[in-house]
Design a protein that fits this description.
The protein has 354 residues and is α/β, with parallel strands linked by helices. It has a domain of 211 residues: 4-Layer Sandwich (Metallo-beta-lactamase, Chain A). It is 44% helix and 16% strand. Bound molecules: zinc ion. Zinc ion binds next to loops.
């Protein structure tokens, strides 16, 4: 999803990162509440296991799916939080004696692939990294730029904190925070982004006893190359970030995203493992996001017909009612939708420019 992190959008990048770092470095009490668990296991169907992020962290890191086959495990998406990723890998090794044969990356956002590096370290060179062909371009450019920006921002924050510490050398709490930040920086500097060894353009099927694993691409959508993992025998769909509880549009292609969702709706599934948030047992979010994109495109085209400029178009939107289906009563969802929903309409305006 790539929220609240560098390049959540070009307009918000600096602000969000600054806030994010500030919350880690300056406002987090040292002996705070016990931290939330890294993930919670759920098994929506036999052999399909999901490390679901706790609700409070659902927008900042992705769910990870483990497809357990007779002889091997296949992972879909890896975390962004490296500490959590290491814990998950240790847990996988302890729970199953089967090897991880493949890691499928649904798209280039770092919260779906940063920890791929650790899967290679933990399971060796037999692990195949699989993804859409476009990842060969987007990972070394866009994903790498995100990682580099993050490293630079951590470095800047640490330098500033060290200056403050030099003026208050007895501030042991600050010294401890700097130490933790330096550990994070070192981990990030050690990450080598993995470009998929195996790629596909439209469809690829992995056959396992009793199960087909279909990797499908319907066109640019949330990013230039989103893979949907469809398990027809289990009637489960692993959807990446295509129709989350609150979709992030910042790197999206709305017209083609709409047709992608319409094609997904023709597949036979009863459960969806989204990139972020709780497992879906119905098509509510698929319908909601389809309706949002259709509405954004319709309103934007109308605005162009009336020759409205972007600011006027955005100012006259009924934002509260547009946000309502996504934000509900949840405070965190309210804050996230306040950023993401207007971004969808901005994107729609720009992408329908005559
Ligand atoms: Zn994403």
């Amino acid at each position: 999803m790539n929220h609240l992190y560098p390049s959540a959008s070009h307009r918000h990048t600096r602000g969000f990162l600054a806030l994010f770092l500030a919350s880690l470095l300056w406002t987090q009490p040292l002996l705070a509440e016990p931290p939330l668990p890294a993930y919670q296991w759920q098994t929506p169907a036999p052999g399909i296991h999901v490390a679901v992020k706790p609700a409070a962290h659902r927008f900042i890191d992705s769910n990870v799916t483990i497809i357990e086959n007779a002889e091997d495990l296949i992972i879909v998406d890896a975390n962004d939080n490296l500490t959590n990723a290491k814990q998950l890998i240790a847990d996988i090794k302890q729970r199953w004696s089967k090897p991880v044969s493949a890691v499928i990356t649904t798209h280039w956002h770092s919260d779906h692939l940063l920890a791929n590096h650790y899967y290679r370290q933990a399971f060796g060179s037999d692990v195949q990294f699989i993804g859409h062909a476009s990842l060969q371009q987007t990972i070394p450019t866009k994903a790498q730029a995100q990682l580099t920006e993050r490293i630079n921002n951590w470095q800047t924050a640490i330098d500033k904190a060290q200056q403050t510490l030099s003026q208050n050398p007895l501030d042991t709490a600050l010294a401890e925070k700097i130490k933790r930040a330096e550990q994070t920086l070192t981990e990030l500097q050690g990450i080598e982004l993995r470009i998929p060894d195996v790629t596909f353009n439209e469809k690829m099927v992995l056959k396992r006893p009793g199960r087909s694993i279909e990797l499908l691409f319907f066109g640019p959508a949330h990013t230039a190359g989103d893979t949907v993992v469809y398990l027809p025998d289990d009637k489960v769909l692993i959807s990446g970030d295509l129709f989350d509880e609150i979709p992030f549009g910042g790197h999206g292609f709305l017209q083609s995203w709409l047709s992608t969702l319409q094609q997904i709706d023709t597949l036979k599934f009863t459960q969806v493992i989204p990139g972020h948030g709780a497992i879906h047992r119905d098509r509510r979010y698929l319908q909601q996001v389809t309706a949002l994109i259709a509405d954004a495109l319709t309103r934007a085209r109308l605005a162009h017909q009336k020759q409205q400029d972007e600011a006027t178009f955005l100012a006259q939107l009924p934002l509260d009612s547009l946000r309502q289906p996504f934000s509900g009563q949840d405070e965190l969802a309210g804050r996230v939708s306040a950023q993401f929903i207007p971004e969808f309409y901005t994107l729609a305006y720009r992408q329908t420019q005559p």
